[in-house]
Write a structure and sequence with these properties.
This protein is α+β, with helices and mostly antiparallel strands and 128 residues long. The longest helix has 14 residues, at 111-124. The chain has 3 helices and 6 strands, in the order ββββββααα. It has helices at residues 92-97, 104-107, 111-124; strands spanning 12-17, 20-22, 29-31, 37-39, 48-56, 59-67. The strands form 2 sheets. The protein has a 4-stranded antiparallel beta sheet with strand order 2-1-5-6, with no helix packed on it. Strands 3-4 form a two-stranded antiparallel sheet.
């Protein structure tokens, strides 16, 4: 869900992705009564820059959000919702590859990747 909560009289809300208007289709793309955009069954093709435009008469405001689609975790690998990677702070693939997940500093930026990696090693056994 992309929030775009607006208030006021006669406020119109519209959404665009990469400058192209987004139209609710009643199934995968919905717009809530407060103006927020709900995307269901998100695919990599849905990535992009989403902009909410709210306007009334001659006044308008907009807000933008970048949407990135990441693949689902593998079934059976429980990663808590608060355990997320922070790719803007660290290259998590490199941290896993360099076996730095045991370092609390590096693993703090790559919680999900390190958790999935440790589950994979638990399941398949570590080779040494």
């Amino acid at each position: 869900m992309l929030l775009c909560v607006v208030s006021g009289d006669n406020v119109n809300v519209g959404w665009s992705r990469n400058g192209v208007p987004v139209r609710p289709d009643g199934r995968n793309v919905l717009m809530s009564s407060d103006g927020s955009l709900i995307l269901n069954n998100v695919q990599p093709a849905d990535e992009g820059t989403y902009t909410c435009n709210a306007y009334t008469g001659i006044y308008s405001v907009s807000a933008t959000a970048e949407v990135k689609v990441t693949k689902d975790t593998q079934p059976g690998l429980d990663v808590p919702p608060e355990c997320v990677d922070q790719p803007e702070l660290a290259n998590c693939e490199l941290i896993v590859y360099a076996r730095l997940c045991s370092n609390s500093y590096y693993s703090s930026f790559c919680c999900a990747s390190c958790t999935r990696h440790s589950h994979k090693n638990d399941r398949f056994g570590q080779r040494g």
